[in-house]
Design a protein that fits this description.
The complex is a heterodimer of chains A (424) and B (500). By secondary structure, chain A is an alpha/beta fold. Chain A has 17 helices and 11 strands. Chain A has a 5-stranded mixed beta sheet, with no helix packed on it. In chain A, strands 3-2-1-4 form a 4-stranded parallel beta sheet, with helices on both faces. Chain A is globular. Among the domains of chain B are: 91 residues, Ubiquitin-like (UB roll), CATH 3.10.20.740; 209 residues, 3-Layer(aba) Sandwich (Rossmann fold). Chain B starts with a strand and ends with a helix. Classes of the chains: A alpha/beta (424), B alpha/beta (500).
């Protein structure tokens, strides 16, 4: 394969640099240049630039970022908020914490620019509570930014006021859902809110609020600094830019890879990551975090890593968490841990999710205990089908999609497991 | 004029004011959209996911409760897709439900049962052990909570937050382990807790008072107005005419009360049951011996006594304010207009705080018809204000006192003391439903009265608004009469005995 892919690093630009997280390192390397440029632009121009860059939400849904920003009412002079969703908890995903590890200032700069664009004067970072070091680094960076005048009541003498506070969650997966996050931030039980109204109209404390993923916000300074056109030269037409991919499983070099969208998955696995560990072969792959439908080894042939190509295969790019399932792994076990995760994490407010995730986990518990029934797989498929698209948030879908795909593509293996389990 | 929108519901054009949800519009049109969490008196939660409807041109089904109708919207509630969604939503609700209908008080008025018959009728696919949760929880004076039956619709939580603003309930834990409960160390203590039983669409909240007393399908409900205070909530009284007994009172949507009523009002049936009522009329003969008698006997006795005195000086009326305006009118017509009685006294509870109000429904005036009595007194020529004139009776010089007692003993803490006091007088004719009048050996004359659920008429509430009694149960006491009937009997006795 030809090496025509960009080597530009955006969100991991400071990877491996000495003293990478310090504000000095950041400023010495064009840090906060995007902010300076942004403060000289009209807010509408910034939104247009982000729209033109084609940047899409990196948290999983892939919604166009500039369009999301444009939903905030422009004539509303009251309080508005920018929230950085750093509650990274999709199984298989470990990219946002890596950005904070490489350079947390990039996140802050993205938030300040976003705040200026939508007319917000306050931002919150909501970080997963288990990220002990990242929490420390982010809070240090916030203090540094205040000291350097990048945060405060009059940023760089522009008259623009922006403050950032940092909050750590309490460990719930559902608080990574943007309205679940808002409920939690408001001090309530972490449960997604009924939509409409959407957060851009009525979010945190019923005020217009933009919730963006960490990786999305971290890409913003580069886009403002280098322009939308430069961003569009990377990636594909519909999925421009670079994306962080979290490669896990029995490959030689698992880890975070920043690659242009449209990158071939086989190249990532076999060249960048050095291929599989000796004695293991790819059986399947979950391309976008545990919520994404599973792909067989066969389906990976020729597959590129962009929103459209993966969607064409019936799965999704999601958070960019690529989990390689090798031939030593039991699909029954995989399905069990998957449905158990969603069972554990369902907030319980919507009936199809509350009861559906529990039902799926209940059936899998039976199968693992040798009490499986012949029609269990068909039942799981039907339950999943009726959980999809029926609830306030996407957690129900997130449980249903992998279940459906696993019982469809690997049903024979699990059926065999059920049979053997009974004999044992 | 508010702005309107026109949309299609199952093919029919419907015009509603802007902001109306499809759920609200459908109810107005009597189109049933199955639902559990939506309640007209509470905010929209959108969590049961039952009220799925198809909007043409939209990829997914939407919930009708949070869907505002817009111009040109084409909504269908009965497509195969919607019907399948309803069936599945019900199945999800029932997966972990204990299905203990045979021992559940909600049976017969349960959303799960009703919807199973209308949109369910599937064979259960649940083959695994169900999730077990705490049962028989004591969460308040009048409540028993079974979290296993609960479908987590959150109506009760929203009621606590939005109506009583007490916020005593929360949903604890997550997923299928989630349970409704009170916060640690707290209980529901307010006067509105049985509303939680009403709004609970299943048998999770049951009423301590009603539990295990009666199957609901044996009960008949009749509309009435609550007699418990001057708010005059619209209610339904539930009784069993075959056994002449009453079991409960529930609120009916009304102008005075919206969807709710208080717990005090809920108990306004208990004084109607036979065991606490005066069941026979009483007379006392010339030798001072007391007899149980029938209605005609008691009327004859009273008729004779009235005929023997000068009404203007010798008769006093002592009137409480728990009867209907129509009754007061006939009472004053006869005694004041016809006989010329001049001594009319108001009988009120001396400890009452008439102007107190809890901010929601319950008022300090525990008489349903204070305003009605005032109106009729005025009409009869008495310029009055609301005051307790009980103490004036003894010194009034009247030889015959007609004492029309308050109907509901529980609303008058001083009633027993007052009754004892009256029995010391020369001759008092008690018109009452209170059993204690019969139990008191000194009572000389008594006529059993009908209760509010057994007569027609009007209460005028604190605001001057009429509340109707129009669908009476048969009176459990054979000789029970209302004031109008007693007065008519006295009149006809007088006529047949030659006096006018």
């Amino acid at each position: 394969m030809g090496d025509t892919f960009t080597k530009v690093k955006i969100t991991t630009a400071f990877e491996g640099k000495p003293n990478a997280r310090a504000i000095k390192t950041y400023v010495d390397n064009d840090g906060y240049a995007g902010l300076k440029k942004a403060l000289g632009m009209q807010p509408g121009q910034i939104i247009d630039e982000v729209k033109a860059s084609g940047l899409r939400g990196r948290g999983g849904a892939g919604f166009p970022t500039g369009m999301k920003w444009s939903f905030v009412p422009k004539d509303d002079k009251g309080a508005k908020y920018i929230i950085c969703n750093n509650d990274e908890s999709e199984p298989g995903t470990f990219k946002d914490r890596y950005i904070a590890e490489c350079n947390p200032h990039m996140i802050l700069e993205g938030m300040i620019i976003a705040g200026f664009a939508i007319g917000a004067n306050k931002g919150y970072i909501y970080t997963r509570c288990d990220f002990f070091d990242e929490i420390k680094w982010l809070e240090t960076a916030i203090r540094e930014a205040y000291d350097a005048g990048f945060l405060g009541d009059n940023i760089l003498g522009s008259g623009f006021k922006f403050h950032i506070d940092h909050y750590a969650g309490a460990g719930a997966y559902i608080c990574g859902e943007e309205t679940g996050l808002l409920s939690s931030l408001e001090g309530k039980k972490g449960q997604p809110k009924l939509k409409p109204p959407f957060p851009a109209i009525s979010g945190y404390l019923h005020r217009p609020t933009i919730v963006n993923n960490t990786e999305t916000l971290a890409a913003v300074p580069w886009i403002i600094n280098h322009g939308a056109a430069a961003h569009k030269t990377m990636g594909t037409e519909k999925s421009p830019g670079t994306k962080l991919f979290c490669l896990s499983g029995r490959v030689k070099r698992p880890g975070v890879y920043e690659l242009p969208l449209g990158y071939p998955i086989e190249k990532l696995i076999h060249e960048d990551a050095g291929g599989m560990l000796p004695g293991y072969n790819i059986k399947a792959c979950i391309p976008g975090g545990s919520s994404a439908p599973i792909l067989t080894a066969e389906e990976l042939k020729g597959l590129t890593l962009d929103y459209e190509a993966i969607a064409a295969k019936g799965s999704m790019l999601g958070s960019g968490a690529i989990m390689i399932i090798d031939d030593s792994m039991s699909m029954a076990e995989l399905l069990k841990v998957t449905v158990e995760f969603y069972h554990h994490e369902s907030c319980g407010q919507c009936t199809p999710c509350r009861e559906g995730t529990g039902w799926l986990a209940n059936i899998m518990t039976g199968i693992m205990a040798g009490e499986g029934k012949k029609d269990d797989l068909q039942r799981m498929f039907e339950i999943s089908r009726n959980m999809e698209g029926k609830t306030i948030c996407a957690l129900s879908d997130a449980a249903a999609m992998p279940t459906k795909s696993i019982v469809t593509k690997f049903g024979a293996e699990i059926a065999d497991f059920i049979e053997r389990g009974k004999r044992a | 004029m508010s702005e309107t929108v026109t949309f299609k519901l199952n093919g029919k054009d419907i015009t509603v004011s802007k902001g109306t949800t499809v759920m609200e519009a459908a109810r107005r049109e009597n189109v049933e959209i199955p639902h559990f969490c939506w309640h007209p008196g509470l905010s929209v939660a959108g969590v049961c996911r039952f009220c799925m409807v198809k909007v043409e041109g939209r990829p997914k089904l939407e919930i009708a409760c949070n869907l505002q109708a817009t111009n040109g919207m084409d909504v269908k509630t009965d497509t195969d897709e919607a019907k399948s969604a309803h069936k599945w939503a019900l199945e999800f609700h029932l997966v972990n439900h204990p299905l203990d209908c045979p021992i559940c008080d909600q049976a017969g008025e349960c959303g799960l049962q009703d919807y199973y018959m209308s949109v369910g009728k599937y064979q259960s696919q649940m083959t695994r052990p169900k999730v077990l949760k705490p049962k028989m929880l004591d969460v308040g004076r009048d409540l028993v909570l079974d979290t296993e039956r609960c479908i987590l619709c959150s109506r009760c939580v929203r009621f606590e937050e939005e109506v009583t603003k007490t916020g005593a309930l929360g949903i604890f834990d997550r997923g299928d382990r989630a349970i409704i409960g009170t916060y640690p160390g707290e209980k529901i203590e307010h006067n509105y807790q049985t509303n939680l039983v009403d709004i609970c669409p299943v048998g999770a909240f049951t009423s301590r008072d009603f539990r295990f007393k009666q199957r609901v399908w044996f009960l008949k409900d009749k509309p009435a107005t609550c007699p418990g205070c001057s708010t005059g909530c619209s209610v339904d009284v539930f009784g069993k005419p075959e056994t002449r007994s009453y079991f409960r009172i529930k609120p009916r949507k009304g102008e005075a009360n919206g969807h709710w009523m208080c717990d005090k009002g809920r108990h306004m049936y208990s004084h109607l049951n036979q065991d606490v009522r005066l069941r026979t009329a009483l007379t006392t003969d010339t030798k001072g011996r007391r007899h149980d008698t029938n209605f005609a006997g008691a009327i004859e006795d009273l008729g004779k006594r009235i005929a023997a005195v000068n009404p203007a000086t010798d008769i006093a009326l002592l009137v409480s304010a728990q009867h209907t305006s129509e009754e007061y009118k006939s009472l004053f017509n006869f005694f004041v207009q016809e006989l010329g009685v001049k001594k009319v006294f108001q009988w009120r509870e001396p400890t009452e705080k008439i102007d107190s109000f809890d901010g929601l429904l319950y008022r300090g005036d525990h008489n349903a018809n204070t305003r009605g009595l005032q109106n009729e007194l005025k009409e009869a020529g008495f310029a009055t204000e609301v005051k307790n004139e009980f103490d004036f009776v003894a010194g009034s010089g009247a030889k015959i006192v007609i004492a029309i007692t308050p109907e509901i003993p529980s609303t008058c803490p001083s009633l027993e003391k007052q009754l004892n006091h009256l029995t010391e007088l020369d001759f008092v004719s008690f018109w009452t439903s209170a059993g204690s009048v019969g139990d008191n050996k000194k009572s000389k004359h008594a006529l059993p009265m009908k209760g509010f659920a057994e007569k027609k008429g009007t209460f005028i509430n604190h605001d001057g608004k009429p509340g109707k009694l129009e669908s009476p149960f048969p009176c459990p006491v054979v000789d029970g009469r209302d004031i109008t009937e007693i007065v008519a009997a006295l009149k006809s006795w007088r006529h047949s005995h030659g006096s006018r």
